[in-house]
Design goal:
The chain is an alpha/beta fold and about 300 residues long.
Length: about 300
């Protein structure tokens, strides 16, 4: 297997056409087709489905595409690392934040990276949680912030911050509980707006884990919404309540549009940490960005800019 074959393969999938891919990588279409056939023989799988309308990845091709993108990214990073000055911090890094983290952390982190490491090509991805671990394992993402539950064995987790959960509802809701804390059972007695199970790793999954441990009745799901912004809008519209960390709804709470009640349950917390893949090469840049993420998050906890957050 050759590097050029991997580059050609990614180009074919991205273009959806052998002729367009050939123009993009500046080779004859016949040569490109020959290289793709050789790659399929090497892997002993069919990577493409070919038709008059172009080419699409087979199931095996979709799997290889994820790995191929990761391989090409690491080659680019390696080239940048060996060419850079020993005293300069440069290179490219991709950090993935779940929606429930990006809302509060994205801008402070981008400002911090730009100020301290101006020569670094910093890429920040806001992702649904169901996508984050696959991208990390396949090398498309270098670092990710995620919860500590149900991580793949090859993922290294470094705890960063702990948060409580709150019952959130619209202002002046007629069936709202009295001001103050509520129990988990009281929170579950309301119809809930949640992300889907496939993308609720940072919120819903943690709640349902505690519910299952306690043998409690699961709350009624009024609606599933895989967007933090739309989910909060649904709660504000009176479609249901939700359960989430305080920081996610702080702006709406300060504006008087939403109301929060801390759920008084010691086990219902989420621990976020910096995740990396043990099978991917470590780098000085990864270490520096990890340290900067920790510095930013802990600083936000100390200053009160991360409501409800406790540094770990």
């Amino acid at each position: 297997m050759e590097i050029r074959q991997i580059k050609y393969f990614v180009a074919v999938i991205d273009c959806g056409s052998l002729s367009q891919a050939a123009r993009q990588v500046h080779v004859a279409q016949s040569a490109l087709s020959k290289q793709m056939s050789a790659l399929e023989q090497e892997l002993e799988v069919q990577l493409f489905h070919r038709s008059h309308n172009g080419v699409v990845a087979s199931e095996a091709g979709k799997v290889f595409y994820e790995y191929a993108q990761g391989m090409l990214k690491h080659l680019t990073d390696a080239r940048a690392a060996v060419r850079s000055s020993p005293n300069a911090v440069s290179g490219s890094i991709v950090v993935a934040l779940p929606q429930s983290v990006a809302t509060i952390l994205a801008m402070p982190l981008m400002r911090a990276v730009a100020a301290r490491y101006p020569q670094v090509a910093f890429h920040l991805n806001e992702e649904l949680t169901g996508n984050v671990m696959d991208q990390l394992i396949h090398g498309r993402v270098d670092l990710a912030l995620f919860t500590s539950r149900e991580l793949p064995p090859q993922v290294v987790f470094d705890a960063l911050i702990e948060e409580d959960f709150y019952l959130i509802h619209r202002a002046n809701a007629p069936d709202a509980p009295p001001a103050g804390e509520v129990t988990l059972q009281q929170a579950l007695a309301r119809p809930l707006v949640f992300p889907s199970q496939a993308h609720g790793h940072s919120t819903r999954t943690l709640v349902e884990h505690v519910v299952k441990q306690r043998g409690l009745a699961a709350g009624e799901i009024a609606m599933e919404v895989n967007s933090v912004h739309i989910l909060k809008s649904a709660v504000e519209a009176g479609i249901g309540y939700t359960i989430m960390p305080l920081n996610l709804a702080m702006r709406e709470i300060e504006d008087g549009r939403l109301v929060a009640h801390r759920i008084n349950d010691a086990e219902l917390t989420r621990t976020l940490g910096i995740c990396s893949c043990a099978s991917m090469a470590a780098s000085h840049l990864k270490t520096l960005i990890s340290e900067l993420i920790r510095e930013v998050v802990h600083g936000m906890c100390q200053s009160g800019d991360w409501p409800g957050g406790r540094a770990r």
